[in-house]
Amino acid sequence: MTNSFFCADASKCVEEDIIGSGTNYQTYVLIECCLPWESEAFNSQQIPQNLRDLVNQVENLKQKIRFLLINSESTKFADRRKILIYDNQSQDVFGGYEKHEFNVNNIEEVAEVVRSYLAGEVPDGETENQPSRDILVCTHGSHDRCCARYGNPFYARAKAVVSELELSDVRVWKSSHFGGHRMAPTAIDLPDGRYYGNLDRTSFKSILTRSGDIECLNKVYRGSGVLPNAIQVLERELIMRYGWDWFNYKVAGRIVEKYPENNAFLAEITFEKADGTYSYRADLMKDETKTVRLKGSCGAQKESEFVKYSVENLHFYSKKEELIFVGYHLYNSAI
Length: 335
What we know:
The protein is 21% helix and 30% strand. The chain is α+β, with helices and mostly antiparallel strands. The protein has two domains: 180 residues, Glutaredoxin (3-Layer(aba) Sandwich); 100 residues. Strands 4-3-1-2-6-5-7-8-9 form a nine-stranded mixed beta sheet. Helix 2 packs parallel to helix 3 and helix 4 packs across helix 5. The longest helix is centred in the middle third of the chain and has 20 residues. The two termini are 27 Å apart.
């Protein structure tokens, strides 16, 4: 590897299909923090020891909780610090993320608020929970330089688009690493929990407004964090079928059966809309034509295989109906 290698350039060169890379977490803990950040963000000098200890403790328990640092232009001027917790604790099959927002006087107070929340208590400092949409753009260049090279310019463009569209309920944040740097610029859209990559101004505007050419998602959609990775390719097929209306539906998914002998799955997505609950099932087969071998980061010493799947044998059924066969090799699309 030479100093001129950028993992995002390598991914784009082979036209990697990035669907299936949205990471699944039950809870996101977003902590406002000044820059710069070390490669391992919570080793940064501005992180107090009590917060570092809490993050290590939670990570050692292997819980599906993701701690991230966030930053905006106002961070360095504000006396207080925000904590945003997006939680998916619902027992409902269609449970989504719910936001809890806290203000603290300084970053030393963050650990106690987060610890109380994770223990099921009601911490002090929660603000009036106004609806908002928080877009996290990875700009964590000390972790992977593609996130600086592509993330920082895109963050500025994203802020400009939000301002141009006068979307007062949308906040754009710089974020520490959340995976997928070879897809930079990459973003998470909360509370949906949807991941995007290879973003540009046009695709971002469509995502914000849920309008325009839905086909752009074939290039920039990484997948929904509420769905298992392998199923995310099936959801994208359904987005192409239903259009932007899909984003108004409640969606859940599961692996019905695994076929390890040929690297395949039987997957099911169930969705709820105004006129009822419906499901699709399909076989997800390893697609050798789209599976790629790449260095997953700028610092990787060797290539890894990134398996892609095709959607085959798609069936549709409503809650009260038997399976209806609607197509074989209907889309032949891949992760």
